[in-house]
User: What shape does this take?
Amino acid sequence: MDNRQIRQIYFDHAATTPVAPEVMDAMLPFFTEFYGNPSSIHRAGRRAGVALQAARRAIAARLNAKAAEILFTGCGTESDNAALRGIALARRAITGADVIITSAVEHKAVLATAEDLRDRYGFALITLPVDAEALVDPQAVAAALGDGRHVAVVSIMLANNEVGAIQPLAAIGAACRALGVPFHTDAVQAAGKLPLDVEELNVDALSAAAHKFYGPKGAGILYLRGGTPFWPTLTGGSHEGGRRAGTENVPLIAGMAKALDLAETLRAAENGRLRQLRDRLIDGVLATVDGARLTGPRTQRLDNHASFVVEGVAAEGVLIALDLAGIAASSGSACSSGAQHPSHVLAAMGIPASQSSGALRFSLGRSNSAEDVDYLLAQLPMIVGRMGERVSG
Ligand code: PLP
Assistant: This one.
């Protein structure tokens, strides 16, 4: 078949997004023209340093934070690692607190880090269960906190990557704040789609990554509230106020600041548009695909996110067939693409492995239109029908 004739539709914006043209323009001069090291004393260095601090101020303003509370990292995973390791180890050294509280539906960047802190550093780990929609109960967090004295850090994500669920963060944060326990949130999926006001969210630390909001891969944000105990993971020079050593990636950071500004400017209108497309997609799939069931909440979910399990099919086969039809989608978790490990998120929601092997995620973005959704709705029932026949035949 001639590839050029196939329509190409990208429904995997939760995995990553293209770089917006405005972001590309903002980055380019810092590769070739203003390439100085932002720590250097000379004019070239100062130019880069000015851009670095401007990006820091712009990002801080979008988070309702102070510029000094923003650290630049290399990705969302690094921000999650730095937050959990940095806060847990520092707070234990100061107070003796040695319990980490997180949820069963966190991204592996948080879960594997918390498990590493348990297994190699001797922390105790409380992994809170979720309900059938992947939501954490703030009262369960409060109960796990007790009087808070033994808790080093709490980490609960703002929005879930696999099923789009938006957690009741402000309530969880309020419980932590009342006891003086540091609260981190993984906002990697939420950034650019939900408000990131750190005062309203009641968070002490927040992670984000540029490539999820039309910025470049290789740039991440860690917000760290002033006064939060923190030991750096990367040691070396005194970059980032001594909290993350290594020469800052000025082009990518300038692009990330531009990307966040753009996403925040477009957010209200784009969320409204995507919500309509999402609902068209969800209603259409539930009406036309045999055995399909929505995963995650119907309304308390990201506006661009639709996820399902389809009884009796293997996601991998469906994704390959969709790809042949020109549609890029995902099963929602990198692990399940190998078909060996059922998704830990779906398992925590009580979905058996026999169903979670048919997990599909469609995450919409700026390039998508109603025609794209309709094309998917024309293809998917046929593809699933063929797969189902193969399984039963
Ligand atoms: N946290 C969440 C919720 C994510 O969805 C992802 C990426 O998919 C990450 C963390 C890791 O981000 P990165 O790939 O930038 O390291």
Observations:
- The longest helix spans residues 250-288.
- The domain at 21-262 is CATH 3.40.640.10 (Aspartate Aminotransferase; domain 2).
- Residues 75-77, 80, 107, 109, 157, 161, 186, 188-189, 209 surround pyridoxal-5'-phosphate (CB under 6 Å).
